[in-house]
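Ticket #4471: structure export looks truncated?
Reporter: QA, pipeline team
Priority: medium

Steps to reproduce: submit the single chain below to the structure queue and open the exported record.
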Amino acid sequence: MTPHDTAVLRVAGRPVGRYVTRPELPARLAPRPYLHPVTTPAGTVVTELSPGDHAHHLGVGVAVPDVEGANFWGGRTYVRDRGPTELDNHGAQRHSAFQLRDPDGFVEELRWVAAGAELLRERRTVAATELTPSAWALDFTFSLTNATSGPLSIGSPATNGRPGAAYGGFFWRARKESSAPDVFTIDREGEQEIHGSRAPWVALAGTTWTLIFAGATERTRLDPWFVRAQEYPGVGSSLAAEERLPIPPGETAVRRIVTVVADGRVSRLEAASLVRKAVSP
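Actual output as written to the record:
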């Protein structure tokens, strides 16, 4: 792997994330750029790469299970009236170029390709910012443009008939520990209460770390949260929850998620304060 295949994010001079642009992965995992490892300021790793329970979970990135029938999530595809099915329909996100590359972030151009055809073009902007000595923020914006000459839409297992499985979009596979992490928002707690709901932010708290995910634009905050804690720890923002997301030819869908990465177990009030600081204009 050459130096051009990775980018290291730094906060206050310390590395906090490694971004792999051209991973060597089998087609079934829907190869795509990802961030791993991501660490807290103290160095605790808070991502997982290809864990035993879900080999297609690749740290932090954008993963979509259905772009006009192509699987950019990895693993099996949920087929209506058949369930999870092994299909030869996996796509790949291909790094084209860095438009900007600094120690605290980058702007990247990508192509989403399946069966030899380019379906989407993406511009991805990632920035790392120090909030406090024990917390920093990962600002992650992705813009998906329909690169075809016809209509295109994004779906999920939920829109294909599997209730409660609206995954697809920004996704963070978190560190798995011996016990499940706590999940809370400003006024609710627990996976069952928060999964599928809309909230300004969602926190995942492990033994010595806390991740706080915030929709950073009005449009992003309309997307429900996909939350897992008991089966495995992961949080995503759902592009296609109740219905497919259409992207007409030449049009673009934009989402921005800011994630606070903190040492220790952060309280509700502390989480709200850190989010305000991280998302402030």
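Status: closed, not a bug. The export was complete when the record was re-opened. Leaving a note from the reviewer for reference: Helices lie at 191-194, 268-279.
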